[in-house]
Design brief:
Elements lengths: L1 E6 L2 H12 L3 E6 L4 E3 L4 E3 L2 H8 L4 E2 L7 H9 L4 E5 L6 H4 L6 E5 L11 H7 L4 E8 L9 E8 L6 H25 L23 H4 L7 H10 L6 E5 L2 E11 L10 E3 L5 E5 L2 E10 L5 E2 H7 L4
Length: 305
């Protein structure tokens, strides 16, 4: 079976590595073009490209997926199957090309959390479980027939970064099950419309306004937003006119008389913000213009007005 793999970030690498280690014939990898990054704006290769180059897999990096030269090159690889993990939206010309079609690994239990940021939104919304789904690509984004699902529990204190790593491994394992079943030719997809999943929750791209903490919200919702945006892009609030990103925190559910968003600190060992129903105790943070640090180190160098 000739497989073309499409993906960009670290999340995708685990699936590509699983295919390679299982002995599948990955004939090419499609990934994002190199982008300038860092202070020197040096061109940065995607995680998938770095892996592919290290394993002698040909790499294609089209700016536009409908480019005739790219489509001709893609056809030339005569793929039986295409696998997509954390890549961009494909035109039908691309996803409909191989005889076995194109399968996607998505980091949610579809049809829940369709969209660009399923890991973040599952935690922001306080879910107790997530998972991965493999499905066949079709016209509407994340709507194709489901092939396999794997559930992954979410711990009450788990961050998006930790869930990302758990789903990355689950995704790789589920992909191998899916490809093996496709190879046998006995895989019937289940239409997502046939699944009674209750009210559907969505996972749109995260924007800056999604990251700002609303201290008027109940404490648990504030805590879930911090977890769901850690380590990236990170929830933030303002402290003495500067942006303060919060990466790690605990909650203290107690009655208090403080205004939501007000700061309580002994200026040595703890820093907490008042929310409805208690306090968010900040453990790891980053003030605008400073490095990420623990709360005690931060308090040693911070001067309260």
């Amino acid at each position: 079976m000739r497989i073309i793999f499409m993906g960009t970030p670290d999340f995708a690498v685990a699936s590509l590595d699983a295919l390679v280690k299982a002995g599948y014939n990955v004939v090419a990898a499609i990934t994002a073009p190199d982008k300038p990054a860092g202070r020197g704006l040096q061109l940065q290769q995607s995680a998938v490209k770095q892996y592919a180059v290290a394993h002698n897999i040909p790499v294609l990096q089209p700016e536009k997926l409908k480019n005739p030269a790219f489509l001709e090159e893609l056809r030339g690889y005569r793929a039986d199957l295409q696998v997509v993990v954390a890549f961009r939206m494909l035109p039908e010309l691309v996803w409909n090309m191989p005889p076995l079609g194109t399968i996607n690994v998505h980091a949610s239990l579809l049809p829940q959390y369709r969209g660009a940021a399923p890991i973040n939104w599952a935690i922001i919304n306080g879910e107790s479980k997530s998972g991965v789904t493999t499905f066949k690509l079709q016209h509407e984004i994340d709507t194709g027939n489901i092939l396999f699902k794997s559930e992954v529990p979410i711990r009450p204190d788990e961050t998006a970064g930790e869930l990302h790593d758990a789903l990355m491994q689950a995704g790789a394992e589920t992909l191998l099950r899916t490809v093996a079943a496709l190879k046998e030719g006995n895989l019937q997809g289940q239409p997502q419309d046939d699944i009674d999943a209750g009210e559907l929750k969505h996972a749109p791209k995260i924007f800056k306004e999604d990251c700002k903490i609303d201290w008027e919200q109940p404490l648990e919702q504030v805590y879930n937003r911090v977890r769901g945006l850690s380590p990236y892009p990170a929830a933030f609030t303002m402290l003495q006119g500067k942006t303060l990103k919060i990466y790690k925190a605990t909650t203290d559910a107690v009655a208090h008389v403080h205004q939501p968003g007000s700061v309580v600190s002994d200026k040595k060992t703890y820093l907490k913000f008042a929310a409805r129903g208690g306090f968010l105790n900040v453990l790891e943070l980053q003030l605008e213009g400073k490095k990420k640090m623990g709360v005690e180190e931060f308090l040693r160098g911070f001067r309260f007005e």
